[in-house]
Every structure is written in structure tokens, then in C-alpha cells.
Amino acid sequence: xxxxxxxxxxxxxxxxxxxxxxxxxxxxxxxxxxxxxxxxxxxxxxxxxxxxxxxxxxxxxxxxxxxxxxxxxxxxxxxxxxxxxxxxxxxxxxxxxxxxxxxxxxxxxxxxxxxxxxxxxxxxxxxxxxxxxxxxxxxxxxxxxxxxxxxxxxxxxxxxxxxxxxxxxxxxxxxxxxxxxxxxxxxxxxxxxxxxxxxxxxxxxxxxxxxxxxxxxxxxxxxxxxxxxxxxxxxxxxxxxxxxxxxxxxxxxxxxxxxxxxxxxxxxxxxxxxxxxxxxxxxxxxxxxxxxxxxxxxxxxxxxxxxxxxxxxxxxxxxxxxxxxxxxxxxxxxxxxxxxxxxxxxxxxxxxxxxxxxxxxxxxx
Amino acid sequence: xxxxxxxxxxxxxxxxxxxxxxxxxxxxxxxxxxxxxxxxxxxxxxxxxxxxxxxxxxxxxxxxxxxxxxxxxxxxxxxxxxxxxxxxxxxxxxxxxxxxxxxxxxxxxxxxxxxxxxxxxxxxxxxxxxxxxxxxxxxxxxxxxxxxxxxxxxxxxxxxxxxxxxxxxxxxxxxxxxxxxxxxxxxxxxxxxxxxxxxxxxxxxxxxxxxxxxxxxxxxxxxxxxxxxxxxxxxxxxxxxxxxxxxxxxxxxxxxxxxxxxxxxxxxxxxxxxxxxxxxxxxxxxxxxxxxxxxxxxxxxxxxxxxxxxxxxxxxxxxxxxxxxxxxxxxxxxxxxxxxxxxxxxxxxxxxxxxxxxxxxxxxxxxxxxxxxxxxxxxxxxxxxxxxxxxxxxxxxxxxxxxxxxxxxxxxxxxxxxxxxxxxxxxxxxxxxxxxxxxxxxxxxxxx
Lengths: 365, 448
Fold this sequence. Notes:
The complex is a heterodimer of chains A (365) and B (448).
Chain A: H1 2-11, H2 19-36, H3 51-86, H4 115-123, H5 127-130, E1 138-142, H6 149-160, E2 164-166, H7 174-183, E3 188-195, E4 198-206, E5 212-221, E6 238-242, H8 247-257, E7 270-277, E8 280-292, E9 318-324, E10 328-338, E11 347-351
Parallel strand pairs in A: 1-2, 1-3, 6-7
Antiparallel strand pairs in A: 3-4, 4-5, 5-10, 7-8, 8-9, 8-10, 10-11
Chain B: E1 15-21, E2 26-31, E3 40-45, E4 54-60, E5 67-72, E6 76-80, E7 87-92, E8 106-111, E9 122-130, E10 134-142, E11 150-151, E12 156-159, E13 165-171, E14 177-183, E15 185-191, E16 196-200, E17 217-224, E18 227-235, E19 239-244, E20 253-256, E21 262-267, E22 273-278, E23 283-287, E24 292-296, H1 305-312, E25 325-328, E26 335-338, E27 342-345, E28 349-352, E29 357-362, H2 379-393, H3 398-413, H4 434-447
Antiparallel strand pairs in B: 1-2, 1-29, 2-3, 4-5, 5-6, 6-7, 8-9, 9-10, 10-11, 10-12, 13-14, 14-15, 15-16, 17-18, 18-19, 19-20, 21-22, 22-23, 23-24, 25-26, 26-27, 27-28
Helix pairs in contact in B: 2-3
């Protein structure tokens, strides 16, 4: 096992290493392992040819590792407890290494003190909506063939996005629809694309000349399939956009933001979340409530309250409960195009290409 | 171990490039060898203002008094000093007062390098062309302050086209001819002295299915500096076409490149190679003698830059946005392309410039020492001659020798990255790593 991991790490340097070469690396590792086996450990299970024997050795190794890990955790806990009892400073908590916090350095990450960025924001296409000069008005339509889950998804989108209007696609060209939306003062156009009766892509077009974002849509769960779901009210929702860090992410964030009215009605206690994690944008729609509880326990909060923003620091009796309203889906950006929909002569601001995916730690949003 | 360190920037030869963006900012990017060749934004001129969006730019980088002309969205043409950014002259391009500047934006701008007026003052001649096809040529005397500059005589104006939208204009190396073209406008060649149209392209015939593709040129350039007869144009339906004025009105050669529209075409110094940039961020080089694609770019990430270079023999970059403009350095083997947010130089290095960029030009007078003395081609001059000699050595194997020359560019400019090739002492006669040459051979097979 260890040899294998080593191999993959070596491979990090050069993603396109040939198979033959990696074998060589593997062999090198094995020899190293043999040399290093000073603790009296057995040879690697992968070198054993008898399967039964190999699996037995492997299982044993694994068990050993598990025990070691448990022991380490125990000693760590004990040290912490002891430190607390003695009134000392407990040993610093280790920060786990995740893909997010080892993300590749990206110079395009927006800085909060960048006045040029704000000047750019003031000049972009979403500015009039975001400055509340006009109210967002959304046109939702579909691809040409549309059935079952598509309409159901759209009817739920209509409850999520205020001032959204569904229009039948008919046989109109998308460019014609864009034209129509412009004349009728729509600010955005959403096209839900379905494939084999399952929504699989979302096209968000800013009107009149805003950018066109093409998202892949996956993991769609409709409201009725969510257990203990709530029914949303027609209040303007609050919007949570998290983790849109880079210049591109910032722009996508603004595109999404411009779909919703900029004056949330807090009485509705309705929140729409777009959470970006590793370039996947997770959509969730919740209702929340603050309740006063006698006990300080937090485990009585909502079932799906993973990302509750509760404030149990100051007032311990107030507890926020969440209820999911649905739908629930995941978006992934495929392309961002300058101007409205135009596949043939369009100019892309960003296109996802396969050759960008050579590292797991590179994110674009 | 996960890779958490940043790959060191390969660096580039000392260059100075000026970039222009939609907020009307002019940014100066400089790379000095003292700082390890990492390009940085050293200066920023102007305040962000969307109405001052730069549409076209042109530089006259003569040694004594360089000038930079910038066309803004508001219809103003400004002549700046590329050294300090001071405004020298500002002209409103209002030959047709009934048209709003927003409707009739400037698409082409050229500042003439040769002096037309014989006067004691520095004068400059500007050629502008608008979307509607109003071309005008005017001379301006540049004095010390912007207020006492005089537009010496009334501009010479003419109409390039009756219908359609002009998208670009380009002036040849000797500055006697200009091409215009655009959406619904075939390529036109104009004699600038006489202001007459000397040649007009003809659209290609219908294809085998009888389908006619409407004319939509997006960019064009003269193939070599001293020959105005060969023109390379890029079209919206991803074609690169070679026209020869002296032979026929239809394209001599026509190549398809990928799927997205060609957005920028720039010639190389050798008179054969052109570089094209597309709407989805691909950068490629074509040899116009054969019509073969020399390199294709992939927007590969940083780490595998070297690996990809070996595998594909292509430009590798970080741009995944549309390429708006490509500039070839007049002396150094450096190519700059500007995409959505990034400017990259032969895609060895790049700078994040935060805005949608519109243009990039090189200031070739830049010297590493910082002072603007005469630029002597010392070490880099050697490189250039070397390039020429290698190109002559292997005339038969074009794809290969082009690769070699560019490879040299690469190595010349990135000594840090040369780990694998560092064993050999003579960079011009080098042994290639095995894998690379194998790949190359395979590629040559494809080409043949």
C-alpha cells in the first residue's frame, strides 16, 4: 500500500508519465522499502504471489495501522485533557490537509482592497440590477423537447426566483427569444436543457447584453423527493453566495446575484444558497426559524442543518432550525461567453477545456 | 505529498508591453532580468471609466520621440507618450456629427512611423476607421502640451464600404497600403497616397452542398513587412485565408482551424509564419507556404507546461478566454497575446490584469537598464541570427525547424526551466530528450 501511495505522489510531478516508467518507479520504491524495513516489518504484501497469503498479510497490516492511528488519537486526546486540567494551553489543533486548503496558488483571486475591481464592477452588465436601478425580471424557458422532470423543475424554480416568468419554448430560435426578452425588459433568461427527460444543463443569459453562462446541472432532487421538506413562501429570499473567490468566480457570483431581487424580505425567513466548493456550485433552498430552547444541546436542530449559521456563542437559548424547501442541485460551469447566446461567432471569456484538468488542486471559481 | 509550492516562473527576456482594457486603463508590463524575468505591472495610466474603453491602439516606437495612439469608445483619439503616459494630443473623431460616437465606434487605428509633414515640430499622422466605414487620415503636430497642438489640415476622409460593419483595418510595413474588412465587407486594399481602392476580394464559391457562407472577416494582416500583396485574413467561420493581390481575387489558400472564430491574426518577422488567436483561447501558428499548422496551443496549466511543450510542440498557455490581440516583438523572439484577463508572452509568463483587455503592443525600445538608450541587439541579437541560420539549415523540414527555433526561444528565455537540456553546452546544436524527438517524428509523419 505504502509503495503505491509513493508512486502516485511521484507521479504528481509529471502527470503524463508512461506506464512503463511508473513501473520502474514502483520497483525503486520496493527496493527502498526493503532497505528501510529496519523495524522488522515484513515485505510488502504486493510482492507476495500467493493470493491467500497476500490478503492475510494485507489485512494484518491494515489492522496494525488502524490500531496505531487509534492509539495516536488517544494519546492526543489525553494530552489535551491533561493540559486542560492543569490549566495550561492545550497543544495546538492540527489542521487537516484538504484539497481546498492546498489549492494551487491563483493570482486571479480577488482582493478586498482592489479598487480596480470595484470600478470594473460598476461598469459591468449586472450593475443596473445590483444597484437596484431596475428590478430583475427573469424569463425561464426550456429546450425544444421537454417533459416530466423538466417542467417540475421549472415550476420549482419559479417559486425560488421571484418575478420569474415561464414561457413555452415552441420552435423559436434562442436568438429570437433573446431578442424578445430584450424588448420586454427582461434582465435575465434561463434555459433549462433536458436530455432524456432529465434536466442536465442550465443556460443563464444576462439581458440585454450580459454574458452567457453555461452550466452542467446534476444531482437534481425535486422538492417532493426531499424528506420533511417545507413549502416556500413568496417573500423575496435572502441570498448566500459563498466561496466565489477568483475574478471569474466573482463574475459568476454577480451573474447569479442578478437573478434575485436585491431587497430580501427578512420576514419570509427564506434563504437561497449558492455554495461553491471545488468549482461545483451547490444550490440549496431553506427556511429557517429561531427558537428558544431550554437545553444547550445542539443536536436537536434540523436534520439537514449541516451549514446552519447559528449563533450559540452569545445567547445559548436561541437555536436556529433549518428546513429544506428544495429543489436541490449542483452546477458546474462549462463556459462563460461574452455577449448573449451565440455559439458560432461567440467570444468566450472562459471555456472549460479538458487539458485544464491536470491537477486536482486547481480551481477556477 | 500534495504539491503546494508554486512552480517557479520561467521568466522572459527584458520586455516592455503596454496593455489596454475596457475600463480605459493603460497598463505597462515590464520584465527585467534583474527580477528574474518576472513580468510585473509597473505603471497604470488613467482612471477606470467605462466610457473610455480602449478600442484600438497603435504605437510608433521610433527612438527619438515615441508616440502611442489610443482610440476610446467615446470617439476620442488620444496620442500619449508611451514612456510617461502623458497626454500629448487629443482629437475627437467627429467627421460625421450626425452619428453618435457610440454608434460609429473606431475599430482601426494606425499611427504612421514615417514623417509625412516636413516641419520643425514632431508631427504624427493617424489613420482611423470606424464601424460604418468612415476612414480618415489626419496629421497632427505634437507640441509640448496638449492644448497647443494643432490638427494641421483638415483630415482626408473617404468611405471604405457602403454597407456592413468594418471590424479591422491594418496598414502594411511601408505604410502605403491599408486593408479593411469586416462583417459583410470583403477585404479591401487601399492606396493611402491616392486614397483609392486598388483591390477588392471576392467571396469564395459555394461549397459542394451549394451553401454560401456570408462574408465575415474578423482580422487580417500583411504576410510580410515589405510586401503588400500577400494578405492573411481570419474569418468568423474559423477559416484562415491567404490572398494574393497580384494573382486573383479569391483566396489562394484557405485552412480551417478548430471550431471557434478567429479573433486575431499577426504576422511573424520571417514573412512566412502567422499567429492566430481564436475566440475560445487557442493560439496557433501557421506556415503560410504550406498551410500547415505548426503548433497548436492547449491552455495547459503551469506545471505541465514543459511536458506539454514536448508532447505537442505547441504554445501552452493559461488563457482560456478569447484572444483579443497578438503582438510580435520586433526584435526579440517574444510573442504576447492578450486574452480575457491575462497577458501572456509566448505563454512562458503571464500577468493577471483584472480587466477585460482589448489590446497589447510592445515597446521595443525598452532596455534592461531602465534608461531608454538605443537598443542594441546584444545577446538577443545573437539569438535572432541563430534563429535565421537554423531556419536555413533545414529548409525541407519546416515543421521541425520551426519547432527548433521556438524551442530555442524558449530555452533562451527560460534558463531556469532548462534542467533537462542543461547537459549539452551548445544550445544551437542540442540533443533533444528522447521522448520529445520521438513525438516530433510522429508529428512530422502526420504533417507529411
